Amino acid sequence: MATSVRQILEQKGATFHAVRPTDSVFDALSLMAQFDVGSVLVIDNDRLVGIFTERDYARKVVLKGLMSRDVKVGDLMTANPHTVSLSHQVDEVMSIMTERRFRHLPVVEEGKVLGIVTIGDMVKSIVSHQKETIKHLESYIAGDLAAE
């Protein structure tokens, strides 16, 4: 499989949503709900400092009985998140996500955030590649059988 993160972002678009560490968890959740996404990047002075996900909310706010309007994203985010580059291949990203149990990875080149890829993006790419392989194999088999 030779699909790169660059190709994924070209297909789906490089849009990402971000908050500041000083924003409330409620504000982050509102943004996530508005755009129907499972995470937001946390940017401070044009630099990626963290990621805040639905999982962070469930484990660090709900289960601890905290109020989302009273807690700052910076207090609960995953700081210094693992990132991938445009040149990473889908199989590499899938391995990282599977081994580390990540569902969202920021895409960063030379310190600049370019987008985010999700486990769903990876699965979609893999399934598409497998469908293409099956189609080629079916054509090959049909061609071989017709020649006999």
Instruction: Estimate the helix proportion, in percent.
Output: 40-55%
Low-pLDDT residue intervals, each spanning 5 or more residues: none
The span between the termini is 32 Å
Q: Can you write the helix and strand succession as a string?
A: HEHEEHHEHEEH
**Biggest sheet layout:** 4 strands, mixed
Number of helices: 6
Q: Work out the count of structural domains.
A: 1
C-alpha Rg, in Å?
19 Å
Which fold does the CATH topology refer to?
Answer: CBS-domain
CATH superfamily: CBS-domain
Strand arrangement within the widest β-sheet reads 1-2-3-4
What is the typical, i.e. mean, pLDDT? 90
Structural class by helix and strand composition: alpha+beta
In percent terms, what proportion of residues is strand? 15-25%
- CATH architecture, by name, is Roll
Query: What's the total number of strands?
Result: 6
> Class in CATH?
Alpha Beta
Q: Which geometry do the CA atoms define? A: elongated
InterPro entries: CBS_dom, CBS_dom_sf, CBSX3_CBS_dom, Diverse_CBS-Domain
Keywords: CBS domain
Protein name: CBS domain-containing protein
Domain CBS: 10-71, 77-132
